[in-house]
Amino acid sequence: MADGPLTLIGRYELHRALASGGMATVHLGRLRSATGLARTVALKRMHPHFATDPEFVAMFFDEARLAMRLQHPNVVPTFDVVSDDDELLLVMEYIHGESLSGLLRAAAAAGERVPPAVASSIVCGVLAGLHAAHEAKSEDGAPLEIVHRDVSPQNVMVGVDGVARLLDFGIAKAAGRVHSTADGQVKGKFAYMAPEQLTNGEVDRRVDVFAAAVVLWETLTGDRLFRGDTPGALVHAVLTAEIAAPSAIIPALPAAVDAVVLRGLARQRRERFATARDMAVALEGSLPPATARAVGEWVEAHAGPTLDRRASLLKDVESASGPRGGEPSAQAPDALSGQNEVPTASLVHEDVSVAGVGTGTGPKRGARKRAWVFGATAAAIAVPLGVVVTMAAVRKVSGGEPAGAAASALASKATATGAAALASAAPSSSASLLASAAAPAPAPASASASHPAPSPLHRHSRPHRAAGKPDCSNPFVVDARGIRVPRPECF
Question: 62, 80, 150, 208: which is the annotated catalytic residue?
């Protein structure tokens, strides 16, 4: 990373670019707090011309609002959204892994296919994340009716922990959205759209079931399901092309797997699985998924060089001690394929909780003021009380009267202690003034050594007796044993 001023957007440091697409570039980022704690994140930085488009900004905030409602192991967490001048950032968890599209390319380059059990595990994770989104509710418990509408291999991240995660709800449809898709406007990737989505019909969660079935077919076979040289030809293929069963390409696949895939790909939505969970249950029964450990090992085996490169970038970012670096990046980011995609590059995971880290630069001004007032009040009470107790102790020792210089010294010590308490509670700019103000004034030269002038604090440590109040000029009484004890009504 080159030396130079670090790019800061809000409270986030912008580091290396991992991937870039038509709408955004994804960067390594760093959230730093005033206490020295830090968090590595993925920053989805919108391209400048989108950041100044009101319609896009509305859609962007919809994405953030929806994504932050989703808390599920199979959904990439969204932590924050930043709007700073002409910058728009979506702050996401950093997943160490690779996109499913990248893994499919790597397997094809090696002349391999994804093992069926690994494919089952990945797609079951996608279906679990979808079901969580479909069932999500608002703060008041009302269904959000989220539909992803852009399920594709590019939007599935598979971590080295063996967990598949769904991301990018940027074009999701949900009840109550601030931004609504214009009539007749189709968004998403044609090759993964359900027929009713392409024809602009009614859209519900079953369009995501269809897209997940396309992803499952392609992950099992290592091939594209729908092809077309033009958008029109691709749409025609989705609507009319014959769909081969996966076992026609991979004969070892059980017939039960064919049944699951083809039901998910039914062009009539009433013939599909009613929910993503139903499809996941059927897939698990027909093709038991691999363990997370096995999936993680497969990911490392097929994305090793890419993961090593990103791990090196991560090390550079996390070892930086402060504001150094520069505009990312000397190394070209990975390309993002398709429309509205977040990275084919992986997002790297860090085992640090984001809770409570970097949410500010220290106590707010009001909190500091309240702390000072509380500390000053406590110290102000402690000063006269300390003098009273000290003088009482001296009276006890001397038989009822202050013992001259000893009493004066103890009273001065108590006053100084109170001043120290005030100084420690006060802001630094006020501490010295308080300390000097609380220091006892020197006794006049004419004062008798045996009867020193009482300090102002001592003189006003007890209020004047009002009518009907007890006479507390002597706040102690002598009990039957000859011991002086304080009178409760005087304290």
Answer: 150
